Prior knowledge:
This protein is mainly alpha-helical. It has a single domain (about 10-95), classed as Methane Monooxygenase Hydroxylase, Chain G, domain 1 (Up-down Bundle), CATH 1.20.58. The protein has three helices and no strands. The longest helix has about 30 residues, at about 40-70. The mean pLDDT is about 90.
Amino acid sequence: MSKNSHHHDPKQKKALQLRIRKMSGQLAGIERMVEADAACPEVLTQIVSVRKGLKSLAEVIIHDHLHECIGGTVDPKEGQRKLRELLIVLERFVE
Length: 95
């Protein structure tokens, strides 16, 4: 684990893992659809679904990070450092 590791609540962690497994299954389905030469609109519909799932997953993790990792920091300098790290990642996220 990195020095910036975060320990999720076990219930929340399970929910995040379920979201990821669902998207993994959808990606496998997309791969099968491409292999089977499925209609482009059908493939694109599944891609949109995975993309929305990733966005939703990211929003949950961002929210948690803001409230738990940054908001819960006792040392203001540490909080500022964590906020700068998040901003760097978010700049890449919105590209």
